[in-house]
Structures are given as structure tokens and as C-alpha cells.
Specification:
Elements: E1 2-8, H1 14-29, E2 33-39, H2 51-59, H3 76-79, E3 82-85, H4 88-97, E4 105-108, H5 129-153
Parallel strand pairs: 1-2, 1-3, 3-4
Helix pairs in contact: 1-5, 2-5
The chain binds 4-nitrophenyl phosphate.
4-nitrophenyl phosphate is lined by residues 8-14, 43, 123, 125.
């Protein structure tokens, strides 16, 4: 079973949306997956998603109110096949945190969407409801594309085949 961890900064806005959208698409596809989300920061550990994220997900028929934030841990890099960053800073932080020799394949979420490689899911935290709707749409586009690729290819580490524009170096 393929396992995927979605990572943003606080784990209360973007990555819970990506996790929920990924689970929903996997379920639609009949794909068995393990999915979770985490933050590079620990300020919100134990907290439910931001109420504006919960509302945006609810507008799209998905309940994320039961999720609780946590920080990325070193063990995640061996527990998950894929660790998927919501923006480039998250990706850089994950590259810095990844223990040498661990199995997880790191990628940027929108690298999985044809034509959107290298793009970030913008942080909606200081925005309004419209920013959260955009975060939902972008997170769902990436998560849906990733689920479809896993279903189609059995995508496993080392097979992402994506250009590395997302590394921004
Ligand atoms: P997220 O959004 O990374 O999408 O969960 C944020 C949540 C909290 C903060 C920043 C971004 N914060 O500064 O507390």
C-alpha cells in the first residue's frame, strides 16, 4: 500500500486539505492508501484545522474537523513512501530534515499536475475565505493528480519521473 504524508508549515490549513482531498480521490478510485499530514513547525501541534480551512473543505463536501496537527518527525522519512510539500519552503525544510538513506521520495504537490510544475499552494493563513477556497482548489488538484498517478502506475519511490524545478536551486 502506498503511503503519503502531506506537509505545510502549520498543518492547520493547506496540508489537512491535501490529505482530505487525497483520501477522497483514493476512495473514489478504490485505491488503498495510507495518508497523513504534518507541519514543519510545531506551533499548532494538537490543534484542529483552522476553522476557515474546515469551512472550505465543508463547502466541498468533506469534513476535516477531526484532524489534529502534528510536526514532522524523523521517523516519517522511513514510514512514508512519499512526503509531499505544499510550497517550496516546505520542500527545502524537508530536504534539510531528511535523514540520510531514508526511503521517502520528496516532491512538491503541484509537480504532480501537468503544467503546474514548480508552483506552490499559497499560504492562506493571513487571507480570507477566498484564499482558503483557492488553497482547497490547488491542494485538491495536486492530491487528485497524485492519487490518479499512483492508481495508474503504482507510483513508488524513485519513479516520480518529475522534473526537479521545484527545488528552486
Ligand atoms: P498552513 O498555514 O501552513 O497551511 O497550515 C499556516 C498556519 C499557521 C501559520 C502559518 C501558516 N502560523 O504562522 O501560525
Amino acid at each position: 500500500m502506498t503511503s503519503v504524508l502531506f506537509v505545510c508549515l502549520g498543518n492547520i490549513c493547506r496540508s489537512p486539505l491535501a490529505e482530505a482531498a487525497f483520501r477522497a480521490e483514493a476512495e473514489r478510485l478504490g485505491l488503498e492508501v495510507e495518508a497523513d499530514s504534518a507541519g514543519t513547525g510545531d506551533w499548532h501541534a494538537g490543534h484542529p484545522p483552522d476553522r476557515r480551512a474546515t469551512a472550505a473543505a465543508a463547502r466541498n463536501g468533506i469534513d476535516i474537523s477531526h484532524l489534529r496537527a502534528r510536526q514532522v518527525r524523523p521517523q516519517d522519512f522511513d514510514r512514508f513512501d512519499h512526503i509531499v510539500a505544499l510550497d517550496r519552503q516546505n520542500l527545502r525544510d524537508l530536504q534539510r530534515l531528511q535523514p540520510r538513506g531514508s526511503k521517502a521520495e520528496l516532491s512538491l504537490l503541484l509537480d504532480h499536475v501537468a503544467g503546474r510544475e514548480g508552483q506552490a499552494v499559497a499560504d492562506p493563513y493571513y487571507g480570507g475565505d477566498a484564499h482558503f477556497d483557492t488553497a482547497w482548489a490547488d491542494a485538491a488538484a495536486g492530491a487528485t493528480a497524485l492519487a490518479r498517478r499512483i492508481a495508474a502506475t503504482g507510483l513508488s519511490p524513485g519513479q516520480t519521473g518529475e522534473p526537479r524545478q521545484s527545488e528552486g536551486r
